[in-house]
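note to self: dont lose this again. the chain is below, predicted strucutre after it. 126 aa total, dont forget to put it in the shared folder this time
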Amino acid sequence: QAHLVESGGGLVQPGGSLRLSCVASGRSTFNGNDNNGMVWFRGELREFVAVAWPGDDVRYAEPVKGRFTISRDTAKNTVYLQMNNLKPEDTAVYYCARNKYSYQTSAPGAGDIEEWGQGTRVTVSS
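---
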């Protein structure tokens, strides 16, 4: 059974940085047979944050452009979200998710997801 586990959340001051990690187990998501995008969402409404597609094409939500970076480490079966210049409005539970598809021209939504992690809490406060 596939499993996604997020970590790296915590309390940070405005302007600070955090690096979230999402480790995939139970199956390899970063091999030649993996055609699924990996996505970060946040909040109860599962707001789209970032996606990394096979071939490392990436897309970001407007509020995080220029501040967040999504990346993969295939050897570790891990996807990251580097968050810089954090703002109070970034406060949320962040979720890692595996997309159903190999590529989408629009930002993924919750209906495009086949597997969710449990989330990791990010709090940005002075």
